[in-house]
Write a structure and sequence with these properties.
7-stranded mixed beta sheet, binds 2-acetamido-2-deoxy-beta-D-glucopyranose, single chain, 6 helices, Nuclear Transport Factor 2, Chain: A
């Protein structure tokens, strides 16, 4: 992660956009290459959407039924069984801790794998500022499994637990309503409104 998330309404829009999955990207990612899975160039293009803050474009390359696991010991750690839950319960929660205009945009540093390999690793760097002034400087990696249509179907995210914990516990708004629907949570602290149901 993470995130140049601007407002809650951005996510309302994203949620609406993906209510009916329409992933017409298959040919976009596969027609230009002979490789079975997206190659480094295609992965770079997809991840550059994140760096630009274009979450709608990036998330169109994530399967609705993705299994997204955030590693570590912090309020966002755990396994998210769908793209919607990952978006609302992880991206949105963290996005809300940033100062508007100083959100942490994830810049791609390096891609490892892809092409003939089902899995790839994306090293990322995000720099932003939280509402309480905390500088959010996170170097991290997403390990992703692709299908042959060029869509992410599984991901393991490795990141700075202490920084995420601090960002959430020091900046999460008490007004922000949140219901935790993760299948499993890692051992660690929970956020302000983290309610397992
Ligand atoms: C993708 O390409 C195949 C083969 O050219 C074509 O049959 C199919 O309709 C295309 N799909 C989309 C979504 O454009
Ligand atoms: C996001 O990327 C898509 C695909 O390239 C593009 O059509 C759209 O205009 C972009 N949205 C923004 C807000 O830049
Ligand atoms: C997680 O929970 C969802 C919704 O209850 C369920 O569909 C999915 O199979 C679960 N995944 C795992 C790995 O338990
Ligand atoms: C839990 C907590 O202290 N949250 C704070 C995060 O930062 C904003 C902006 O400074 C405060 O309004 C919250 O109270």
């Amino acid at each position: 992660m993470f995130f140049s998330v601007r407002t809650l309404s951005v996510f309302a829009f994203i949620a609406a956009t993906f209510a009916t999955p329409a992933l017409a990207n298959s040919n976009q990612t596969t027609s230009q290459t002979q490789s079975k899975y997206p190659d480094k160039g295609q992965i770079t293009k997809i991840f550059n959407f994140l760096g630009d803050g274009n979450y709608t474009a990036f998330l169109s390359y994530v399967a609705p039924e993705v299994s997204w696991t955030i590693m570590g010991t912090h309020p966002l750690a755990g396994q998210y069984p769908t793209r919607t839950l990952f978006t609302t319960d992880a991206l949105e929660r963290l996005g809300n801790t940033f100062v508007v205009g100083q959100e942490a945009s994830p810049k791609l540093v390096r891609v490892i794998g892809g092409g003939e390999e089902e899995w790839s690793v994306q090293q990322l760097h995000a720099l932003g500022k939280c509402k309480n002034g905390l500088v959010f400087d996170n170097t991290y990696a997403w390990v992703t499994r692709w299908n042959t249509d060029g869509i992410i179907v599984e991901a393991d995210a490795y990141l700075d637990s202490t920084l995420i914990q601090q960002a959430i516990t020091e900046n999460e708004s008490i007004e922000h309503k949140y219901t935790d629907l993760r299948n499993t949570s890692m051992i660690g602290p929970v956020g302000l409104n983290c309610k397992a149901e």
